[in-house]
Fold this sequence. Notes:
Shape: globular
Low-confidence stretches: 9-21
Order of helices and strands: HEHEHEHHEEEHEHEHEEHHEHH
Strand content: 15-25%
Distance between the termini: 46 Å
Radius of gyration: 20 Å
Mean pLDDT: 91
Helix content: 40-55%
Amino acid sequence: MKNILAAGIFTALVALVAGPASADEPIVIKFSHVVAPDTPKGKGADKFKELAEKYTGGKVRIEVYPNSQLYKDKEEVEALQLGAVQMLAPSLAKFGPLGAKEFEVFDLPYIVPSKAALRRVTDGPLGKSLFQKLESKGITGLAYWDNGFKIMSANKPLKMPADFQGLKMRIQSSKVLEAQFKALGALPQVMAFSDVYQAMQTGVVDGSENTPSNMWSQKHYEVQKYATLSDHGYIGYAVIVNKKFWDGLPADIRTQLDKAMAEATTYANDLSQKENDDALAAMKASGKITFIELTAEEKAAWRKALAPVADEMTSRIGKETIDAFRKATADAP
């Protein structure tokens, strides 16, 4: 990792020493991400490239690097801070380890009641104030992109909280998700996303949580017998940019890039919903996995079992942030 970052830093320093590009040369923005091009995030990045280059009349060139071509999950944020790349779209859970633990509010179970409620947060004052927490880290937040609502999967039916007892459940690194599964009596296992299929196949983990589109693209439905349509949590991304780079752009260029980002965000979020719906239908049609719909009583039991997680995480995330999130979503349609 250090060698990769060192190479990126050297490139960035060379660019600084060389000075700004001439008036005839476009401004280059490297947009690095860790997923495949054929995903909502990948397609959103490509849409931003198309619109940004169009609206700036070619004054900006966006270079998109998918599939961790430049940096892996754990390296990319540091690379952005150091100026080796200019733009990323990491999961919101990435900002907790960076010191902006308020972003972990998105990981709390059942904190997001609906997509409409979510928009009240991401498009409103709270979404902006959360982005301000990144400024001191040398990062400017531009937009929130959806992955979607999560479902649970395992090789046994998960209908009641007691069904999780003793199960080894894969999570991405998150103190909130760790607390979530402990509240259900399961054993959380932090594991890279790319390793999950084999871990499920070999029994290293019993199950996981994820969005339907991720379960489909990674073929988890082939190695899991059951999935519960719990919609207990949300996975989202933040499109971020190196603050020093962004602030140094001409104002008119920033305006056009903001316009491109707004349109790319609508595109990516609409696409995310469609791909999750399509993935769910495709997995059902495969006949390889059985989907469970929770009754009102069962879902109430899940909510009751998971309610203490927010209280447990209050000192970490902040009562003010949790209360503001609940207030923003309370009266959403």
